[in-house]
Design a protein that fits this description.
974 residues, mainly alpha, Beta Polymerase, domain 2, Four Helix Bundle (Hemerythrin (Met), subunit A), 5-stranded mixed sheet, magnesium ion binding
């Protein structure tokens, strides 16, 4: 039995019951063994024999004589449990599989279905039509599955899909006939109603089990027509398949039936891009043929101009995201329809190309995916080989989909689990897959699934972009190829705002006979696909060209992009989002290699910022010349900035980690510069006349620097024993000025501005003071704003012991034992009111200025500092320069409600992310969020917003900062 594919213990008894347990039936048994599931086929035959009773012998004899009947019946029973049940319930239907079978045209089918309705009045039509429809499915499935068992001709996929659509048309027509007869009793005039098929039915590529999408067009759209349409849907859904009218104008909320004029008005004024994409497949299927023809003729011209709509690109990108998000990640690899490299990838790509080029080329005005692929290939919009390969992959995936649906006549697109060998083996046999010498049918299926998924994903990018490369002159044999004008249309539809410039970049990158040009021509289709998903693909492509030209002699560069897809994808995201990082990568290209994944995670994170800081100081310390020392420090800083910003853009770092890493590298540069200048100004073998400490202020002192932050500092010195104070101060002044000058030297890197304006007396005061001078000043002259500024003072570089003494000294000023005076607190409130009224730059929007705007960084930081001034003398934990850490203490001490603390914390993090994102996107410091548009979308992506929806990002920013402002007012008002 095992050799016959029969493994169930009852097989021998079942064969005996059928009378097939002797030598006369050996050929029949070999045919049975070739069924997808021989045991299931045998069980169904036993049930069918019981149902036929006395006429069983007639079928058994026919099977012995008729090889074609054998292949059809065993093929069906081994692949479809549902059709096996249908045969058992209607045993005489086996006769439909005898003889020379043909698939009747749609007109014959409609006439046959109509006759069933006529001969079975009222409710009796429903079961009669159900049986008749299943009989027609049985015939089609038998022809489709027969090659599994015998060497019958294989039905083309297009033939199967077209006949299923013809069956659906006939079923819709019969349902309409039934509905008219039910609704339009005496005195009610039959309606003029057209049923428009959409989706796969409209394209004549329907599945065995699928919803049938329809739109209704009525002459009057009155209550009678609506009732008829509703009854038709109910009857068809109960009898044949689900009928779905959700593609109608306004979806399920819209009228079920509209007049032609109402449809036209809606599509002219309100329709979205996806609705025009759906209309690509619109086709009159049933009802009034003339009204259906008028509908299609009126709306099709709008379809072919949809790509010129202002929101076309945004809508297309949103549609792609929605499709990808529909499938849970854990089953994405098993989803034939919506998974990566699945059917929807093919259909979406084809429809987009049709919309882009269809206005100028009527040859693309076809509905089916297979026909559209052929037309696109013939016209040169995609390569002919690519069109053929994509068609083969599409038909293979659809074949598997059909077999999965036939098993139980259930709507499904899900492959069996990868560890379910039995289910996968059945699928392989049902899909005509044979062993290949190296693998059995199961092994062949597994290999083919891998190959097809990779091929579809690769071709999905190539369909859009390979012809674009060829239009620039890259030599690939595709016939006449795509014209430059067509290439520009396609690039514009894919999100490129300057398609002419993009084509120039493509030509420069790939139009070369060198190794680089050949590798680029292979890489670019995929890279361009990834770039099209970024906020600014034009800038990304330009930056990619600049980077490629700068690294032309670096052989590792293109090799890494070719071999490490994660590196290439991450690089495209960075280049298409940021103007800040590409310039850094030009001068620190080794960071690109860190885009790869290492054993423990992304290599970008395999770095300790404090260790980098120590290395930077050490590297600079090996240079005797201060200029060379700073150049060395800049090199390491550049690399670290590129690493931090890349990891930030790729969502690998939290905002706190970004601030810590940026502060760490800034402190290291200050230390390196200070060390270098001190060495240069100290006699060989001698000693420096004074010790110097650098006190960080503002966000530097708080350890919360952003990309655009200056380094707010104060310099403090202390003469060494035996040196006059005046001499020591003069020397320290020289050192401080040289440090500022060296760091402030213009450079291609992000600037290193050292700001000492928070020192006593501001710009009018000396750059350096002794510790005693600072102490005298703060004791006698300190203003409230200076006390407030000292709340963030922290030693960052130079002599740390001197820095520690400085902090102990200023603690008497910023944290006095009895607290700061009520007058000082009142003055801080007054100054804050003035800042709110006067400090905002001219023309800035107070709602979206991340630093000085409503609920922005200044608001939160001033609120924290006011609470520190009032309560730090009682709560030692408030002796903290970090805004976020101080907020934690404020919440723990219940100085304000925990909910208010959370609002302030969220506002600070949101504003910091936004401010950092502004620098990353624009490449220069700025505090003002832009208005709606591409720039705001880019800021949203750079800030880690889950979608490139700048509007939603801005709404969230406004909501968060508005709530924080209410807390600020509460604290400052009381």
């Amino acid at each position: 039995m095992g050799r016959l594919g029969l493994v169930e213990r009852t097989a021998s008894a079942d064969l005996a019951r059928l009378g097939w347990d002797n030598e006369d039936h050996i050929e029949l048994l070999w045919s049975l063994s070739r069924a997808a599931d021989a045991d299931a086929a045998l069980r169904a035959m036993v049930r069918l024999a019981d149902a036929l009773e006395s006429s069983w012998g007639e079928l058994s004899a026919a099977l012995i004589k008729d090889k074609a009947l054998r292949g059809r019946l065993f093929g069906v029973l081994g692949a479809s449990l549902a059709l096996g049940d249908h045969l058992v319930a209607n045993p005489q239907s086996w006769r439909l599989l005898e003889g020379a079978l043909t698939l009747p045209p749609v007109d014959e089918l409609k006439a046959a279905f109509s006759q069933v309705v006529t001969e079975n009045p009222g409710a009796t039509a429903v079961p009669a039509l159900r049986v008749f429809y299943r009989d027609r499915l049985l015939v089609l499935a038998a022809l489709d599955l027969a090659p599994t068992v015998e060497n019958e001709p294989v039905l083309a996929f297009t033939t199967v899909g077209a006949h299923l659509s013809d069956l659906a048309d006939a079923a819709l027509a019969a349902s309409l006939q039934y509905a008219v007869g039910t609704v339009c009793r005496e005195g009610i005039e039959p309606p003029t109603l057209a049923v428009i098929a959409m989706g796969k039915c409209g394209a004549r590529e329907l599945n065995y089990v699928s919803d049938v999408d329809v739109i209704f067009v009525g002459a009057k759209a009155d209550s009678t027509e609506t009732r008829v349409a509703g009854e038709m849907m109910r009857m068809a859904s109960e009898t044949f398949f689900e009928v779905d009218a959700a593609l109608r104008p306004e979806g399920k909320r819209g009228q079920l039936v509209r007049t032609l004029d109402s449809h036209i008005a809606y599509y002219q004024r309100w329709a979205k891009t996806w609705e025009f994409q759906a209309l690509l497949k619109a086709r009159p299927a049933a009802g009034d043929a003339e009204l259906g023809r008028q509908y299609v003729e009126a709306l099709m011209p709008m379809v072919w101009t949809a790509s010129e709509r202002e929101d076309f690109v945004v809508d297309v990108q949103a549609m792609r995201r929605r499709v990808e998000e529909l499938v849970p990640a854990d089953v994405r690899g098993r989803e034939l329809k919506l998974g990566t490299g699945g059917l929807r990838d093919v259909e979406f790509a084809v429809q987009l190309l049709q919309l882009v080029h269809g206005r100028n080329d009527e040859a693309l005005h076809v509905a089916s995916t297979v026909d559209a692929l052929a037309a696109l290939g013939t016209a040169g919009y995609i390569g002919r080989d690519d069109a053929a390969n994509m068609t083969a992959s599409y038909e293979f995936l659809r074949l598997l989909e059909h077999r999965l649906q036939l098993q139980r006549l259930k709507r499904t697109h899900m492959l069996p689990p990868p560890d379910d060998d039995e289910a996968l083996r059945w699928l392989a046999r049902a899909a005509h897959i044979r062993p290949d010498g190296q693998h059995d049918a199961l092994g062949v299926l597994r290999e083919e699934l891998k190959r097809q998924s990779v091929r579809v994903s690769r071709l999905h990018a190539k369909l859009f972009y390979q012809p674009l490369l060829e239009s620039t002159g890259v030599s690939v044999d595709i016939g006449d190829g795509m014209s430059a004008a067509a290439a520009e249309r396609q690039l514009a539809a894919l999100g490129y705002q300057s398609p002419g410039s993009a084509l120039t970049h493509l030509a420069a990158l790939a139009n070369s006979n060198t190794r680089r040009g050949r590798v680029q021509s292979v890489l670019l289709p995929t890279l361009l696909d990834w770039l099209s998903d970024t906020p600014d693909p034009d800038a990304g492509l330009l930056q990619y060209r600049r980077l490629s030209e700068a690294l032309a002699e670096q052989r590792w560069y293109l090799g890494t992009l070719r071999d490490e897809s994660a590196v290439a994808k991450r690089l495209m995201h960075v280049l298409g989002t940021s103007a800040y990082v590409p310039d850094l990568l030009m001068r620190a290209p080794e960071v690109i290699q860190a885009y790869a994944d290492g054993p423990t995670g992304p290599k970008l994170l395999d770095v300790d910022p404090d260790g980098v800081a120590r290395a930077l100081v050490a590297a600079a310390g090996r240079q005797s010349d201060p200029v060379k020392a700073i150049a060395s420090a800049r090199t390491l800083r550049r690399r670290e900035l590129a690493r931090i910003a890349s990891a930030d853009l790729l969502g690998m770092l939290e905002v706190r980690d970004v601030c810590h890493a940026l502060t760490s590298v800034w402190v290291a540069v200050l230390q390196a510069a200070l060390d270098a200048v001190i060495r240069a100004n100290t006699p060989k073998g001698g000693a420096a006349p004074a010790s110097i400490a650098v006190i960080g202020m503002g966000r530097l002192g708080g350890g919360e620097l952003g990309y655009g932050s200056d380094a707010d500092v104060m310099f403090v010195c202390d003469p060494v024993s035996g040196v006059e104070e005046a001499k020591a101060v003069k020397w320290a002044m020289l050192v401080a000025e040289q440090v500022r000058a060296l760091l402030g030297t213009p450079s291609a890197d992000p600037p290193l501005e050292v700001d000492a304006n928070l020192r006593p007396e501001g710009r009018n005061g000396p750059l350096v003071r002794t510790l005693a001078s600072y102490e005298a000043y703060y004791r006698q002259w300190a203003q409230p704003w200076e006390i407030q500024a000292l709340l963030r003072a922290h030693r960052v570089a130079g002599d740390l012991e001197l820095g520690h003494r400085f902090l102990l000294m200023v603690d008497e000023t910023r944290y006095p034992p009895g607290g700061v005076s009520a007058e000082a607190v009142q003055e801080i409130r007054r100054v804050k009111a003035r800042v709110d009224a006067e400090r905002l730059p001219r023309g800035a929007d107070p709602n979206t200025h991340t630093k000085l705007g409503r609920g922005g960084l200044a608001d939160v930081e001033w609120t924290v500092q006011l609470l520190q001034l009032r309560f730090a003398h009682k709560i030692p934990a408030l002796h903290n320069t970090s805004t976020l850490e101080s907020l934690d203490v404020i919440g723990a001490a219940e100085l304000i409600a925990e909910s208010d603390v959370e609002l302030l914390r969220e506002a600070w993090l949101t504003a910091t992310r936004a401010r950092n994102a502004l620098v990353l996107v624009r490449g220069k410091p700025t505090d003002q969020l832009p208005g709606p548009g591409r720039l705001l979308n880019a800021v949203a992506v750079a800030a880690g917003w889950p979608e490139d929806d700048g509007g939603a990002f801005l709404d969230n920013y406004l909501r968060v900062t508005r709530r924080a402002k209410a807390v600020v007012r509460k604290v400052f008002g009381g």
